Amino acid sequence: MALHNDRFLRALARQPVDRTPVWMMRQAGRYLPEYRATRERAGSFMDLCRNAELACEVTLQPVDRFDLDAAILFSDILTIPDAMGLGLYFVPGEGPMFRSPVRDGAAIDRLSAPDAERDLDYVMNAVSTVRRELNGRMPLIGFSGSPWTLATYMVEGGPSKDFRHVKGLLYSDPAALHRLLAILAEAVTDYLNAQIRAGAQAVQIFDTWGGALTTPAYRDFSLAYMQRIVDGLIREHDGRRVPVILFTKNGGQWLEQIAATGCDGVGLDWTTELADARARIGGQAALQGNLDPSALFGAPATIRAEVARILESFGAGSGHVFNLGHGISQFTPPENVTAFIAALHELSPQWHE
Fold this sequence. Notes:
TIM Barrel, 13% strand, 11 strands
C-alpha cells in the first residue's frame, strides 16, 4: 500500500522533506472531548485498549482533527506487565497500580516473558485495524515502555516519586534486577516485533524514568537493555525500513550513548537545546522534540514564538521530527494545538528550501 504522507519516515532517515513533520506524545487522550466520549462508552481504560475498534477510533481522532504526520497506537506501556499477571488496575487521580508488585529475587524468578502474539493479541488486533483504516494516509507508530521504566512500575507497584523500592533493589540485589530487566528486554523485543508484523511502520521506546538514574546505573540498568531491544528488532518490513526512536526523559546528558545504540531517532525533552543535540549527534541519528507541553497553555502568539525558536535551534535541513518534550497535558485546550500545528506548517518550510 502506498504511503501518501511519508514526511515522518523521511525525516527519521534524515532525507529531504518539504516541511518539518510533527506528531505529539499522548496525542490520543483526555484533552480531546471526542476521546472522553469514547472512553465513557468503553467502560474502563483497559476495556478501551482491548477493543480494537474503539482503540482504532481514538487513535484516529487526533489525526482527523489536526494536520499531523503520524498516528501513534492508542495503548499503554503497562500492557506487558499486565500480561505477566501482576494485576494492573487504575486509581482515579493516582494512575496505574499493580496488585502483585515484584519486590525480591524470588518474585522475579516466578516471572516469564509473555508471548506477544498470544497474550497481547488485542494490541496486535488494534494495530492491524488502525493500519487498515489509515489506508496509507500516514505512518503508524507502535511503542513500548523501556525495560527499566516497566521495572519501576512493577517493583514500586505504581507511580513513585523516589523509586525507593526499585533503587533499593538495584543497590541491594543488582543480580535480581538484571534478571528482571533481561526478561523485560526479551518481552519488549517480541512485543514490538509483533506490532511491526501487524502493521506498525515505526516504533518508539519510552524510557520515562531513565533520567532518575546515575550515569553508571543508566548505562547498566537502562541503556544496555534498550540496546538489546534495538539489536533484536525487525528493521525492514514491507519493503521499507522500520525506524526505532529512543526517548529517555531527562536523558540529555547521555545523547552520544543513546545514539550509539544504532537507533534512528533520539527523543529530547525540553531541557536539552536542539542546537546542542544536533552538534553532538546530528550525524548519527535524527532528533525528535522538544516543545515544553506547558507552552500549549500560552496564547497563540506565544506558542508561535516557541515553535519559531525551536525550529531556529535545530536549523536548516532534515533530521528533525517536531514533537513535545513529553506527553500533552490532559488540560490543554485543543484550539491551542491547532495554533501550534498551524505555526509549524507556516514557519518550517523556510528551513527546508
